[in-house]
Known about the structure:
Layout: E1 3-10, E2 15-21, H1 25-34, E3 37-44, H2 63-78, H3 83-93, H4 98-111, H5 116-121, H6 129-141, H7 144-199, H8 207-221, H9 223-241, H10 244-254, H11 260-281, H12 286-296, H13 300-314, H14 319-323, H15 331-343, H16 346-402
Antiparallel strand pairs: 1-2, 1-3
Helix pairs in contact: 2-3, 2-7, 3-4, 6-7, 7-8, 7-16, 8-16, 11-12, 11-16, 12-13, 15-16
Amino acid sequence: MPIFRYKGYTQDGKESSGSISAESLRDAKERLKSSGILPSGIEAEGTSKGRAGILAFRKTVGLPELALATRRLATLVNASMPLFEAVATLMEQESPGEMRSVLSRIKERLSEGKGLAAALADESPLFSDSYVSMVAAGEASGALDTVLERLADFLEEQDAIRSRVTTALAYPLLMAVVGGGVMLFLLAFVIPKISAVFADNKAALPLITIILLKVSTLVRKGWWILLAAAAALVFAYKRLMAGEQFRLKRDTLLLKIPGFGTLFQKLLLARFAKILGLLLSSGVPVIRAMEITSEAVVNRAYRLFLGEAKGSLIEGGKLSAALSRSPLFPPILIHMIGIGEQSGTMEKMLEKAGSAFEREFDTATTRFMALLEPALVLCMGLAVGFVVVAVLLPIFELNQLVK
């Protein structure tokens, strides 16, 4: 029998929490109410974040799996199938796993009389605010199938972008790991054996060789110092990340890094335009759409300004005028939004702008990787060359002394 964890209040107003065995979520609620507890939150054991322990692996639903489920639900709804039956059919279609469990809980909430958006909201963070808001707008307008199709398209596009970035970074990361491993092997095992040859020689060693030997000694005997320093840096970084001001400075700095900053900015602009256009085209009010979009844009420099722009919209201003006050938004995006405001087609303009920035991001990524790969090869070559020169230079000097 499934176990549900709950939080709630007793009849005298005191907080209560614990676990209860029940056949379903509805059965758990009924048992709690019969025992005099008014539940404020109930969830199946194992679905809560972080409760399985530090060493446990948390089950997650991947973006491709979520996109496929959304596409299938849109198809069933478009076929005039009742929503409860559509979700039940999806659940039967899924193999045992986290997605099937999620659909089971959603079906249970639908049977209790909740709407789809409300049922999805209880599965945060799997279903984001933008996802839930679009579904709510689709339910209110009677165009749920269309909204779900748009959501599926958007999720598939996001997964495609993520796959391209992962593929582009795979080779450079592999080279960095292999190169670093080779250097550590040379410093920890090869250089010490060669240094024994120089130890018997009383002649002064070249500076480059002395540096290499010092680094090798540090790696062999002071590795714990390096690990302690790395752990201290990670700890200090996490402590600093707890402050919002530090996060804002970090995100602002990321946008100023040569090469990477421009690349990252194009990705942020594509995400901003796509999400805002998708929300507006689904019938979400513009103020609420701006709130959701500002939360979906992960960079805090953008998030802070979008909050200010939302305030300008509340006062009756135009979005294009609000965005023009910041250098974070390029003139082409501002002009396209302005044209959309004048013609009443802002959502279409935003979707076109998002697609344009995605193409620019793909092109910029290809160019960046084309430059990064030879740069990594050059760095590895310089590192190996440094070791070779540092080893061979004193040997040449010894040969000169023998002659």
